[in-house]
Amino acid sequence: FDELYLLTDARSVCNDEITKQEVNFLEKFIGSQKLKSSKKMSPILDMCGGQGRHSLELARRGFGRITVLDYSHYLLNVGKKKAGNEKLNTSFVQGDARNIGFLSESFFIIIIMASSFGYFVQEKENEKILREAYRLLKPSGNFLLDLPDREYVLQNVKPLSNHRVNEDIMVIRQRELEQDIIYCRERVISEKKGCIRDKTYCTRLYSPEKIIHLLQEAGFSSISFRTNFMNREKENDFGCITNRMIVYAKKI
Length: 252
Fold this sequence. Notes:
Shape: globular
Number of helices: 8
Oligomer: single chain
Largest sheet: 7 strands, mixed
Distance between the termini: 34 Å
Strand order of the largest sheet: 3-2-1-4-5-11-10
Radius of gyration: 18 Å
Structural class: alpha/beta
Helix content: 25-40%
Number of strands: 11
């Protein structure tokens, strides 16, 4: 997750219109919560938040006390610079979502957006993130998890896709499905320099039943779903994020 990622995935992660649509949804979600303090000043954690595109847009709309947590120094520095230029009150912290180190019960709302969960082949590592989110939530706090829609992906996943980033760079993705894990080999080809990246990463797919079980094991309750979130199937092939589902959970 570096400067090349912001090129290869720019159609989604650098698309201001998509970010605004997703934050419209987040703003309604936050507004629906019965929080003890002002909704716009309740502490929010954007887990695996990258360059903080959702948090920065929330800050532009008057939300304060937002923390972006990510593992990538590069993406965090991009977000910090933008927050500084726009004088936005958003904090950026580098860390591992499985063991962040913040004090327990620090946040009223925790979000994981844009299919940023399920990257570990070993499921126990993904479970650590859910347990950490539970630990960090205040009692009656709310957790929002944005995941690929498993059924849509299983029915529509394409073994091969490609798109051109610009006149120089082409992205080629080869996908294989194995027991609810999508293994994606991503090759980034420059006409000037040749192959500049050849990496394989994985994304786990979760059925509602499976994610309910994992959330309950972590301690969450009052779990519900919204399907067909940010459906972009008419636009192009965006892999696992072409169609997504939102999972809501609560810490009682």
